Amino acid sequence: MSKIWRSLPLHARVIESLKVSGPCTDEELLRNLRKDGDDTLSASTLNKALFQLEIRGLIHVSTAPRGRKKIELRKT
Fold first, then answer.
1. Which of 6, 24, 55, 60: CA 20 to 30 A from 69?
2. Is 57 left (phi over 0), alpha (psi -120 to 50) or beta?
3. What does the alpha-carbon distance between residue 5 and residue 16 come to, in Å, rounded to a whole number?
4. Based on the number of CB atoms within 10 Å of its own CB, is 2 exposed (0-12), middle (13-18) or buried (19 or more)?
5. How far apart are CA 46 and CA 25, in angstroms?
6. Using CA atoms, how far apart are residues 49 and 31, in angstroms rounded to an integer?
7. What whole-number distance in Å separates Cα of residue 63 and Cα of residue 25?
8. How far apart are CA 66 and CA 16, in angstroms?
9. Which residues of 37-53 are buried (b: 16+ CB within 10 A; e: fewer)?
10. Nearest 5 degrees, angle CA 45-CA 2-CA 32?
11. What is the pLDDT of residue 45?
């Protein structure tokens, strides 16, 4: 089984998805990224990317009800 290389890294796709959809939960973001053609994306991989983006100061992640996370772009 061969794997397909994505033209954009996950970090860039997360930023683009947030620009289009606005603030959303981690579940909604995962669903949107999977809809865009990345069916193999796991929640743990997304969480690692979100952590890196938050460290870089590009996004803000806050807790939401029921163990979810609210993700939004930081205004620059």
1. 6
2. left
3. 18
4. exposed
5. 12
6. 15
7. 9
8. 26
9. ebeebeeeebeebbeeb
10. 40
11. 94
CA distances from 58 to 1, 27, 66 (A): 35, 19, 25
Which has the closest alpha carbon to 56: 43, 73, 33, 31? 73
- Classify residue 33 by burial, with Cβ atoms within 10 Å: 0-12, 13-18, 19+: buried
In this predicted model, what pLDDT tens digit does every residue of 19-56 receive, in sequence order?
Answer: 999 999 999 999 999 998 777 889 999 999 999 999 99
Q: Which domains does the chain have, with CATH numbers?
A: 10-73 (1.10.10.10)
Query: How far is 59 from 35, CA to CA, in rounded Å?
Result: 21
3-state secondary structure of 64: strand
Q: Which amino acid appears at position 67 of this protein?
A: G
